[in-house]
Amino acid sequence: MNDTEKKAKVLAVANQKGGVGKTTTAVTLSSALARMKKKVLLIDLDPHACASIHMRVYPDQQDYSIYDIFNSEPEEWAALWTKIRVERGETPLDVASASIFLSDLDADLRERPGKGVILKQALMLIESEYDYIVLDCPPHLSILLVNAIIASDLLVIPIQTDFLALHGLKLLFDTVNLLNKVLPEPVNYRALATMFDRRTRASQRVLELMDRKMGDAMFKSVIGVDTRFREASAQGRVIYEIGPSRGGREYEAVAKEIISL
Length: 261
Description:
Elements: E1 9-13, H1 22-35, E2 40-44, H2 50-54, H3 67-70, H4 77-84, E3 85-88, E4 93-96, H5 105-108, H6 118-123, E5 132-136, H7 143-151, E6 154-160, H8 165-180, E7 189-194, H9 201-214, H10 228-234, H11 246-260
Helix pairs in contact: 1-11
């Protein structure tokens, strides 16, 4: 890629605690950016493949998945990218599906040199084709999560506004701090408050605590509780495809914040 070509901004959506809105954030943020006429690739790095299924890209119906990038040599990557990516028409963006075999990568790559930068290097082949590449990360420390954080320009951390969810934030920061010791530049991150219930004082207290502790490292936008996310997921659609909603508008606000960074 020469200096005149654009380089996609890579967003890794991660939290080492499940149930905080990680996949909802990856899927909806990708869709919000696409609706703003940005060219987007959503990569599902979670062996559970929730983002893939949410987008109706079913791993058992795909001949290739993102697993093939990790399980191949660099000279094969260019050809593989053309086979892995699926164009999703309803909300126009590309999807690279997960595979259950991603759960084996820590063992598969144990002896491979440079295993932490495989994704970063592979994305260099396609980064000029997109404005944003969004990574839905696995909810546990693994070589996949390390690859995603190293490849990212911005680590987006969804945090449920619940006191128990703050523990997952600590685990992720422990991982980030370890990587910062070896990376040439510190990991750039921003936290996103999710599942905020305006009716409860507990949610308000957690949000106040997050704002106080993280300051400018928090998105100004807050994602509230919205049952339409669940409805959209059940239909294999994104929230924008089932009608107007507050949750959809809130993720559009997050997308605008990201574009302005």
